[in-house]
C-alpha cells in the first residue's frame, strides 16, 4: 500500500526526507480492529511534534485523523461491519493515517457524519474528542452553568470545535482569544460571545468586556507565556484545563485560589486501554448526530489536495508557522 513516512526525526520540513512516499505491506486487523480503506485525513500539531521529537528505528506512519470505509473487521468487533463509513483519531502508539489502509480499535471509532464529505469529516475526530473530553470529562461543565469560559487560542483546531460545543451545548459565556482579524471573525462565526486579543494582557481584554474573572480557562497554546495571567483571571476555586506542552508548569501559584489543574490528552484512553475506552466511540457518535442535525459544523480550514509527501510537507510547514486556522485536510491518493 502507499504510505507517507519519516525515518529520521528532527529534519526541517523543507527536507524531502522529512516526509517521503513509500510502499508498505497492508496491515491485518486484530480482534477489536477495523481495517479501513482511507479516503481523507487531517493534519494536527501532534503530527509535527512526533516527526520532530520521536526517533524511530523503521519508517513510521504519522497521522491521527482519518475517514474511510471498513474493509474487514476483527473477530471481536460488534459495532461496525464491512462497508460502513467511519471517522476516527486512532492511537498514538500505532501506525497512523498517512496511508491507503489503517487499523483502528472499534472502541475509538465512530460512524462518519452522513451530511459531510470525506474531507469535511476528516477535520473532526481528534479535535472533537479533545474538546469534548476537556469540557465535559475534565472540567466537568454542566449543561446550564451560568459561568464564563476563556479559550486561549480559540482559532486552532481544538479551539474551533470547543467554541462550538461550549456555545451550543452549555450555558457558558464563551470568551475566545485571537490576535488576527480573520481569526477573530472565524471564532465569532463559530459561536464565541466575545473575542479578546491574546497579544495584549488578558486582564485588560476581559475588563474591556466587563469581566473581572472567569470560572473556567481552556489553555490550548502558549500556556507558559500566559500562565501568570491565567492564574490572575481565574476566580477562586476555578478550573484550568491544558493541552499543550509547556516546558514546565508550576502548580504552586494555583494553591492560594484553590484552582484545580486538568490535563487533557485524547490518546490516554487508548494508550492505557482504560475500562472506559469506548467513551470515545460514544463521543464520536454524539458529534456525528450534532453535525447531522446542524448543531455543529466542520472546522475544515484548508484543503491541501491529494495525500502525498509533498502536500503533507506543505501542511506541516503551515502548522509549524502557527498561522493555521481550523484544520488542514487532504483527500485521496
Automatic annotation (TrEMBL):
GO terms for cellular component: cytoplasm. InterPro entries: ADH-like_N, ADH_Zn_typ-1, ER, GroES-like_sf, NAD(P)-bd_dom_sf, Quin_OxRdtase/zeta-crystal_CS, Zinc-ADH_QOR/CCCR. PROSITE patterns: QOR_ZETA_CRYSTAL. Its main location: cytoplasm. One of its GO terms (molecular function) is zinc ion binding. Residues 14-330 form the Enoyl reductase (ER) domain. CDD domains: AL_MDR (cd08252). Gene3D superfamilies: Medium-chain alcohol dehydrogenases, catalytic domain, NAD(P)-binding Rossmann-like Domain. It is found in: Cytoplasm. It holds the Pfam family ADH_N. Keywords: Cytoplasm, Metal-binding, NADP, Oxidoreductase, Plasmid, RNA-binding, Zinc. The keyword Phosphoprotein does not apply. The keyword Oxidoreductase applies. Homotetramer. Belongs to the zinc-containing alcohol dehydrogenase family. Quinone oxidoreductase subfamily. This is Zinc-type alcohol dehydrogenase-like protein. It comes from Pantoea piersonii.
